[in-house]
Give the backbone structure.
Amino acid sequence: MKTIVIAGGTDGIGKALAATRLSGGDTVVVIGRNEVKGKEFLDSAQARGAGARAFFVRADLSLLAENERAVTAVKAQFPTLDALVLCARHYRSARTETTDGLEENFALFYLSRYLFGHALADSLAAAEQGVVVNVAGPGAGLGLVRFGDLELRRGYHGGAALGQGGKLNDLLGVSFAERYGERGIRYVLIHPGVTATSFSGVYDQETRRQIAAMRAYAKPVESALPPIVAAVDSPPAQPLSAFVEGRRIRVDDESFDRDAARRLEAATERILLEHRGQTGVLPRN
C-alpha cells in the first residue's frame, strides 16, 4: 500500500482520486482550503472503515506561509511518501493578488507546486519509487511564458494566466527531473483533457458562457483518473515524462527547453527571496 499526498484533493479530479486510492487501501493525505469539504472527506472515509488512513490538512495554497505550514505538517507525520499529486488551481477572470502580493494564478498553479515538490523531495526519495504527478496540461509552446512579466501585470487575461501556468509546470518538471532524477524520483506531467470538475474560479459573464459550453462535452471526472492512477502505480522509468489524455508526448523538444527551465528556476528563487525575506527553496551554490 502507498502513502499519497493530493494537493487540491477536496474537489474535482483530486477528490475522485482520493476516494479511489482510499478504497484501494492506500493512506491518503488531502490538502485544501475548504474545511467543510475536508471534513466530508474524513467523514466519508470513516463511514467506509478507512478513517485511520485518511488525513486532511487545511491550507490556502495560494499563500506562501500556508504552503510551508502544510508541508511541515505532512513531513512531520509521513517521512516517506510514495506519491505527490498536484491538482489545485483556480480561475480568475480579473487579476487578483494574494496577501503576499503575488498574482493568484501564479502563486497557486505554479509556486505552490514548486514549493511542495522541492520541500517533499527527501520524503519521495525515501520511497521505493517516489513520484510527483503534476496535473497541469503539458505540451504547449514556450511562447506562452512571459519571462519579463511572470505575474501578468500587463495585459492580464484569466485564460492566459492558466495557459502560462501550465507551461511553467512543464519547465518545473524539467528542472525537477534534472535535480532529483538520480535520486530515483519520477516526475510525470499529465493533461487529462477537458473534465467536468467544479471549474473552480471567479468568472466574468463571457467566461461563464464558455464554461457552460465546455460542460456539454467535458468527460466525467472518473474518466480522467486512469493515466493518473497509472503514473502513481507504475511511474515511467525516465526522470521526466508527459501524457495528454493518456498519449505519451515528447519531453526532449524545444518546448521543454532546459535553459528555459533553469531560467525559470532562477527567477522563482528570486521571487521567493523577495517575498519571504530569506532564501528560496534551493541551496545556494
Q: What stands out?
A: The two ends are 38 Å apart (CA to CA). The chain has one domain: 3-276.
